[in-house]
Amino acid sequence: MKPRVFSGVQPSGDLHIGNYLGALKNWVRMQSGYECIYCIVDLHAITLYQDPAELRAKIEEVAALFLAVGIDPAVSSIIVQSSVPAHAELAWMLTCVTPVGWLQRMTQFKAKAASQDTVGDGLLQYPVLMAADILLYQAHIVPVGEDQSQHLELTRDIAQRFNALYGDTFVMPETKLPEVGARVMGLDDPETKMSKSAPGVGHGVALLDPPDAIRKKIMRATTDSNPAVDFETMGPGVRNLINIFQAFTDWPDEQIRAHFSGLGYGQAKKQVAEMVIESLRPIQQRHREIVDEPGYLPGVLKQGAERVSPIANETVELVKKRMGLYSRS
Ligand code: ATP
Ligand code: LTN
To answer: pTM here?
Structure first.
């Protein structure tokens, strides 16, 4: 049997090139060697308020983008988290073995809580639900961007604690980061990661941005005051742009150096912009085709949920039995 892969994206905004290079691009690659489950984590999205109509529309947009980047529903399962009730069910059981101090230490919790007037309990529980997503399918590998590493460590801690208390139950999942593109930074501020929820039109490039918008954003990206690319002295803004180029092309370091060394910033930005535009063009084209095909998307999501539900239910039954809860079998 092939090892299992699980990962997810929140339908909480416009997917950007950071999501693609940090996660989705790896997801596509992994389909050949693994049994893959890719999830639209709508229950995670509501840990911060979402407009219901917008959330509903975003779920389908993200699903269409999964398909557009190359996730093949014939071999991989695409699911919406809330359509498989076992995610929330297992999350509760895991909540009961998770010390609250572990959750309060999470950097993402601290950052997101700091920007809220009232902090919902869901924001604190967020990583427990994420652990449930992964452990529910006994996933071996979780391909994510670097910002999720701490949550993955917590997932392993929760699994270990459960296994120690109730006997060997969960597979220990491993984190898989991309070699380049694990942390794409904001174009307007190369000290912060590119994020869906960050304000500012010049911050990120969305996967569905039209070519003109992409060109404008990249040409205006923050750089330093050097006149040309110098790999020894360049600041984080230029480094970020070149990283984006490398993550899209998969060129080796030497080729990247030879290509960019000594290039004026205007020229370098133009190269990056055109590469991003050309890389996104087929994805955008495919996205339009998928959206124009009525009934296709709901069918894919239904098939995904049906395919994974037996695995999810089996884990929930096992956990119930281990914990002494009332179980059907
Ligand atoms: P938000 O800012 O709303 O929390 P996000 O942009 O971080 O959203 P997520 O849905 O939380 O997006 O992340 C989906 C996947 O994309 C995760 O695997 C995450 O690690 C990855 N990812 C997110 N931002 C980046 C980034 N800037 N660089 C590389 N990977 C990223
Ligand atoms: N927290 C993740 C999204 C997510 C996820 C998961 C990723 C929810 N459940 C399970 C990997 C595996 C994020 O990207 N912000």
So the answer is: 0.96
